[in-house]
Design brief:
The protein is of the alpha/beta class. The chain folds into two domains: 3-222 and 350-416, 3-Layer(aba) Sandwich (Rossmann fold); 252-330, formyl-coa transferase, domain 3, CATH 3.30.1540. The chain is 40% helix and 13% strand. Strand 11 (349-354) and strand 12 (358-363) form a beta hairpin. Helix 2 (32-42) crosses helix 9. The radius of gyration is 26 Å and the shape is elongated. The two termini are 28 Å apart.
């Protein structure tokens, strides 16, 4: 079952979310920045996505009905307007500065050195708007020897010890999480930092520069779990949260599939062994006595759970564990997730009728607000769809905009009115 996202978008053409009235100039590309600014857009901010004449590279990634509107781009760039402009031209830079003069936040995710070459450093932006929040997402803190290095999600998973944790837990080679987790975690960190800076600016009246480095963000994210005994000086152990690293911590095989189950507290273990008719066995095994003793023997504990869950079907375990209030869920894949009864009941997935891309499956904002519910309020834009509109708002005249179009310094919606052919 799906809600009518088309109706929702029509009703929310003027955003009603909590960030209504906040204007963000968004120079981010690929995933890290766009994911964060999409969240801000869904919360009601006016996000102006600034793209080069060729558009965001991610427009070309994944299946698409039309070139330049790939699935990955569509799912990280809704609730935004697109301004396509050549910032390497002085007139393009000047137009952007006029736009930034009336903005609250300026966001980018290239190396700061590139912003300086474009003449778009914090100092340049602060000169036209002292109240602006200038937020940068990039690889590394600018105070260390890695400052000018490029960074990608895969690199950050490896550098932050996350990939190595797979070796600790499986005995195999290091692996990457099959999701752009470093990009999205850093994007979320940027959302937090930007909103905190806006609150402070509203008190002090002063803008500031904020750096959100991927490397340090991911090291903090991973080591918060895995510092372990390395938290102490001298160290108490070699680090690592053993429960998370146990080789049997994974979806458990059943007679006909897999199930995820979490037997954790004293009450849950007693309920589990009672329903198995093995409560006396539990009482006789000191390893199960407390959370502390279970943690010390976590590999053996999880291995026993793995053996036990292999004796019944997935449906049997889901019913059994549900009856004794032990958390358990099926292992969804990319087909079954769309039929999850909870997501159906909460109308999480929707179907919108995009003006150019046709029917698109959508995901609602996951949270629920009593008054200012965040929601997508604009369709994912075509390249340069709002160039003329945005520059008029920045104070450029029709003649100035026509001149920029003629000189190919900006790309307008009219220039891209005829969509390219279908893509496979």
């Amino acid at each position: 079952m799906m809600f009518d996202a088309q109706a929702d978008l029509q009703e929310a053409s003027e955003p009603t979310g909590p960030l209504r009235g906040l204007r963000i100039v968004d120079l981010t590309t690929v995933l890290m920045g766009p994911y964060g600014t999409q969240i801000l857009g869904d919360m009601g901010a006016d996000v102006i996505k600034v793209e080069g004449p060729d558009g965001d590279l991610v427009r070309l990634i994944g299946p698409a009905r039309h070139a330049g509107m790939g699935a990955l781009f569509i799912n990280t760039n809704r609730s935004k307007r697109s301004l396509a402009i050549d910032l390497k031209q002085e007139e393009g830079r000047s137009a952007l500065l006029r736009l930034a003069a009336g903005a609250d936040v300026f966001v980018y995710n290239v190396r700061p050195q590139a912003m300086m070459r474009l003449g778009l450093s914090y100092e340049a932006l602060a000169a036209v708007n002292p109240r602006i929040i200038y937020a940068g997402m990039f690889g590394y803190s600018q105070n260390g020897p890695y400052a000018d290095r490029p960074a990608y999600d895969d690199l950050m998973q490896g550098a932050s010890t996350l990939a190595a944790m797979f070796s600790r837990s499986t005995g195999g080679p290091p692996q990457y999480v099959p999701a752009a987790i470093a990009d999205r975690i850093t994007g979320l960190a940027a959302v937090n930092a930007i909103l905190a800076a806006v609150i402070e600016r509203n008190v002090s009246g002063k803008g500031q520069r904020i750096d959100i480095p991927m490397f340090e963000t991911m090291v903090n994210f991973v080591l918060s779990d895995h510092m372990g005994g390395l938290s102490y000086d001298p160290p108490l152990d070699a680090g690592g949260y053993q429960r998370l690293l146990s080789r049997s911590r994974r979806p458990y095989k059943t007679l006909d599939g897999y199930v995820c189950a979490m037997v954790y507290t004293d009450r849950q273990w007693r309920s589990f062994y009672r329903v198995l008719g093995r409560e006396a066995e539990l009482d006789a095994d000191a390893r199960f006595a407390t959370l502390s003793t279970r943690s010390q023997h976590i590999d053996a504990i999880y291995a026993e759970l793995e053996r036990t869950l292999a004796t019944r079907t997935t449906a049997q375990w889901l019913q059994c564990l549900g009856e004794i209030d032990i958390p358990a869920v099926p292992v969804h894949d990319l087909q079954s997730i769309f039929h999850d009864p909870h997501l159906a009941a909460t109308h999480y997935f929707g179907l919108e009728q995009h003006p150019t891309e046709g029917p698109l499956r959508t995901m609602r904002h996951p949270g629920t607000w009593s008054r200012t519910q965040p929601a997508a309020h604009r369709f994912t834009p075509r390249h340069g769809e709002h160039s003329v509109q945005v520059l008029k708002e920045a104070g450029l005249s029709d003649a100035q905009i026509d001149d920029l179009i003629a000189r190919k310094i900006i790309v307008s919606a009219e220039q891209t009115a005829e969509l390219p052919g279908e893509t496979s």
